[in-house]
């Protein structure tokens, strides 16, 4: 199983980015997917979760700014990030079941 994440980059505060993660996994549509940022020196913690049934959960720190979505036909999960803040700077990992993507770096400058 491979998860390939992309879409990170350098953006100014207030800007937007969209992350993508494509999974080579069967029955992708049946699984919950999630995004976990990890800043240097901190633990990896989820910020957005999307179940197979379409239910979403967001961490308080990103609610109203980030949107998780999926395209099951493409085995891909997205994270639309708006109104970015410097504290959003982190490597963002996608997760499906027990599998992790390689991470994509998001840097938000002030």
Architecture overview:
- The protein has strands at 3-6, 9-12, 17-23, 33-38, 48-50, 56-58, 66-71, 76-81, 90-96, 99-100, 104-109.
- With 110 residues, the chain is mainly beta.
- β7 and β8 (76-81) form a beta hairpin.
- The mean pLDDT is 96.
- The protein is 0% helix and 49% strand.
- Strands 2, 4, 5, 6, 9, 10 and 11 form a seven-stranded mixed β-sheet that branches.
- The termini are far apart.
> Total number of helical segments?
0
How far is the first residue's CA from the last residue's CA?
37 Å
Instruction: Please tell me the overall pLDDT.
Output: 96
The general outline is globular
Main beta sheet strand tally, sense and closure: 7 strands, mixed
Rg, alpha carbons: 13 Å
SSE series: EEEEEEEEEEE
Low-confidence stretches: none
Structural class based on helices, strands and sheet pairing: mainly beta
Record field, number of beta strands: 11
Which bin fits the share of residues in helices?
A: under 10%
Beta content comes to over 45%
Topology:
Blueprint: E1 3-6, E2 9-12, E3 17-23, E4 33-38, E5 48-50, E6 56-58, E7 66-71, E8 76-81, E9 90-96, E10 99-100, E11 104-109
Parallel strand pairs: 2-11
Antiparallel strand pairs: 1-3, 3-8, 4-5, 4-9, 5-6, 7-8, 9-10, 9-11
């Amino acid at each position: 199983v491979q998860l390939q994440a992309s879409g990170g980059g350098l953006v100014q505060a207030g800007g937007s980015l969209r992350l993508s993660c494509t999974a080579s996994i069967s029955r992708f549509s049946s699984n919950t997917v999630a995004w976990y940022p990890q800043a240097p020196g901190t633990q990896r913690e989820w910020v957005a979760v999307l179940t197979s049934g379409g239910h979403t959960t967001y961490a308080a720190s990103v609610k109203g700014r980030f949107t998780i979505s999926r395209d099951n036909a493409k085995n891909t999960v997205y994270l639309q990030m708006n109104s970015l803040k410097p504290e959003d700077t982190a490597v963002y990992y996608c997760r499906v079941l027990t599998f992790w993507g390689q991470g994509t770096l998001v840097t938000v400058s002030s």
